[in-house]
Amino acid sequence: MRSGDGLIVRVRLTGGDLIPDRAAALAEAARRFGNGLVDLTSRANLQMRGVSDETLQPLLDRLAELSLLDASAAAEQVRNVIASPLAGLDPSAPIDIQPLIRALELRLIGNERFHFLPAKFGFLLDGGGVLPLDGVEADIALRAEVDGHFRLEAGGETLGWVRAEEALEAALGVAERFLALRQPDESRMRDVVGRLLNEAQQPSPPSGEGGPTKSGRMGCGPLATSFPVGVLLADHTPSPVASQRHLPHLVKKAAAPSRLAGPHPAGFFTAAAPFGRLDAGQLEGLAAIAARHGATLRLTPWRSILLAPLAVDVTTQVSSLGLVVDPGDPRLAIAACPGSPSCLSGEAPAQADAARLAPVLAGFVERGASVHVSGCAKGCARRAPASITLVGQGGRYGIAFDADSKAPSETEPMSLGELMAFLTKRLTENSFKSSDHV
Question: Model-level pTM?
Answer without folding.
Answer: 0.87
